[in-house]
């Protein structure tokens, strides 16, 4: 019996037969993997063959919350989508904010397991524990924002929604799963898996409460952690003021913002697309996800020009970079419009923008024949960026269909896979490893392909004084530490941004007070390391090897041509060996038996 | 007398106030048991917090047949006396603001009581969309704010930027 934090039940949904089953949450797994990303990954490891076609009915999707979801723990409303991802076949976990996670818990379920495939498009309506399969033929083809609104109108105005857009329906490899119409589980193509099951969305509404094991201890932990964040200059300064886009000028000033498909890493006119400019030009108000005191979310509108009157959420910094700098585009209104389109079609902004950039380089270098492009694809052409996203979302022609598969498959199609700025086929985000060494190790070793939020080394390399961004020493240790911390943090349902102020001990305290499980900072990190190794084991069984732990040749070989990091390349090998050894893995990137035993993962090895 | 001031323009929609309220009042996190409620307009991402205004002429109290809702002349609040409530729910109908709520089971009336002068919702509202201030200070700060705007315009007029 668990005293608090969890609702204790998992809903298993068989989409083939349209039947549902309630299962008990396993206390031993809750203790070993927390919930969310960790627990969900364990389910996938047990129930899904790592070699299965990600878009086959045999693949499963876990929609998971953590024990802190639905409480006042700071920024604790995350929901996670865990599956075998189609973009690269790795264990995919992508999380989102909004209100879906806490509301899912109030229906009485910690998680939903989706399996099989419906013969017709459906959506699920989970109303106070009662589950209905509803016809979604009229929603198929509808944009994300339209589906969000229609599903709420058809169910309950105060319900919360999850939905895929046309990109997910058409199984784009870079399709996301959206929540509340504008919050994204963006990465790894999770939307395509949901689309492959003919599931348009899930609507939840519940009336149950979330209890915690120790009322007073929890109240005090909440007070203390909120106070820490209130005093933190990032969480209470830069982020609420300028959103995540506060980083445009910061990262560009280090010469580490990839520009024009990473042919450069410095954009002289970066301020045109900065968070500061976004604030004066487009910001309407801040938005906070469930129980968030940071409220970095941007509610924006385009106030002039050809997109005047368009409005929505974002853009985030990564989206500004991918749809802006990466495409040589410094028209902020066009970036914002392209970002809205990504949200409406249900496309991952990072991968989408980077794919357009890749197409532009292929086009400019003549590798993509002009006849294959519906319009000239020149770096810096704002219209080309917006229209490419539209083509990718609609998939009405070969160009759109090709781009919708992501940059790796696009570049491979034209015989130049090296021009895809990706690791394990997933596009890397807005930090150039040539100018920030540690993040390259994170991209190379991330269990879901290139990613910044598995172990956000930028916090240590740029945002707080500590490590020299150009040094290699110490980067393996900080990468491992942050990867383990984040795996545990994600599993509680807490937002990564809390770690600008909170430490493992603070998070362990919240988790422990909520659940009644004994947990200190050491144990919290050990759980994170267990989750990391579990993900790794899945990937190895799926066929990935140590050879996949690398970076695009451009990052390893081509010096940055201009700006503050001019002349730099990334020497990954200076960190990789040390990283493997700190992880207790062999030189082949395979966990040793001893480490797996130490982590209690013998049954999965 | 202090009042809860709601400023929708500042609200970020995080709903922490609702979780904090229910936790304070029932020991469980359940927004349906919260006295304060944030309405989200998804189409334009606008967030509007609502809570009992502690009316000088409380319709809820006027329709209550058992005097379970009464205006407290000492505190200025409209008190809810649970033991007198017969559950007729007429107060919900009468309140022009929808601020008399019913709990998650649809059984018990719940109503804001300012947490005896230390509202739990205010403590988690980082955006200061919910504040707890002396009523005369609400007027003063409103006038101060408007005056600041005039002050800025006047300063620019002096520079000739905005004649």
Automatic annotation (TrEMBL), chain A:
Domain spans labelled Aldehyde ferredoxin oxidoreductase N-terminal: 6-208
Necessary cofactors: [4Fe-4S] cluster; tungstopterin
Xref: PANTHER family: ALDEHYDE FERREDOXIN OXIDOREDUCTASE, TUNGSTEN-CONTAINING ALDEHYDE FERREDOXIN OXIDOREDUCTASE
Molecular function in Gene Ontology: 4 iron, 4 sulfur cluster binding; electron transfer activity; metal ion binding; oxidoreductase activity, acting on the aldehyde or oxo group of donors, iron-sulfur protein as acceptor
SMART domains: AFOR_N (SM00790)
Keyword Transferase: no
Family: Belongs to the AOR/FOR family.
Protein name per its UniProtKB record: Aldehyde ferredoxin oxidoreductase
Keywords: 4Fe-4S, Iron, Iron-sulfur, Metal-binding, Oxidoreductase
InterPro entries found in the cross-reference section: Ald_Fedxn_OxRdtase_dom2, Ald_Fedxn_OxRdtase_dom3, Ald_Fedxn_OxRdtase_N, Ald_Fedxn_OxRdtase_N_sf, OxRdtase_Ald_Fedxn_C, Tungsten_al_ferr_oxy-like_C, W-dependent_AOR
Membrane spanning residue stretches: none
UniProtKB/TrEMBL annotation, chain B:
Sequence ranges assigned to domain 4Fe-4S ferredoxin-type in this UniProt record: 2-31, 43-74, 76-105
Record-linked PANTHER family: DIMETHYLSULFOXIDE REDUCTASE CHAIN B (PTHR42859:SF10), OXIDOREDUCTASE (PTHR42859)
Source organism of the structure: Candidatus Cryosericum hinesii
InterPro entries: 4Fe4S_Fe-S-bd, 4Fe4S_Fe_S_CS, RnfB_subfamily
Gene Ontology molecular function terms on file: 4 iron, 4 sulfur cluster binding; metal ion binding
Pfam families: Fer4_11 (PF13247), Fer4_4 (PF12800)
UniProt-recorded name of the protein: 4Fe-4S dicluster domain-containing protein
Keywords: 4Fe-4S, Electron transport, Iron, Iron-sulfur, Metal-binding, Transport
Gene3D superfamilies assigned to the protein according to its UniProt record, in alphabetical order: 3.30.70.20
Electron transport recorded as keyword: yes
